[in-house]
Write a structure and sequence with these properties.
Helix content: under 10%
Order of helices and strands: EEEEEEEEH
Distance between the termini: 46 Å
CATH architecture: Beta Barrel
Strand order of the largest sheet: 1-2-3-4-8
CATH topology: Thrombin, subunit H
Number of helices: 1
Length: 113
């Protein structure tokens, strides 16, 4: 089975499956997704063509961080200790964000200095 192909509705692959959580606040396609090793309290990192990065917790529907970038975000990844987040943007820049900062909604320009 090609994982990129959409399985048919009768497939045993989808029977009885329900989403654990669903996030719908990106307005353009998601470009990257990273889930840490936190188990039921895992953090979920997403980036999008809508020029935003968002951080959520698996056990809460609330967005923990939302960062607006000057260009679309190709990729986001956290360091191994999850203290900083790095965002690669379409303008060729890599932005870094301190995840321990108090603000929950920032711009890449203010986050990176």
């Amino acid at each position: 089975m090609d994982l990129l192909d959409e399985p048919d509705a009768a497939s045993s692959f989808q029977q009885g499956l329900t989403p654990v959580v669903s996030f719908t606040d990106h307005v353009l396609p998601v470009t990257s997704l990273h889930v840490d090793l936190g188990g039921v309290k895992a953090r979920i990192y997403t980036s999008s063509l809508d020029r935003t990065y968002k951080l959520r917790s698996l056990n809460s529907p609330q967005c923990l961080y939302s960062v607006s970038c000057p260009s679309y975000v190709n990729m986001c990844i956290a360091d191994p200790m999850e203290q900083r987040l790095f965002m690669g943007c379409g303008n060729g820049h890599i932005y870094a964000l301190d995840l321990n900062a108090a603000a929950t909604s920032v711009t890449a320009a203010t986050a990176c200095g």
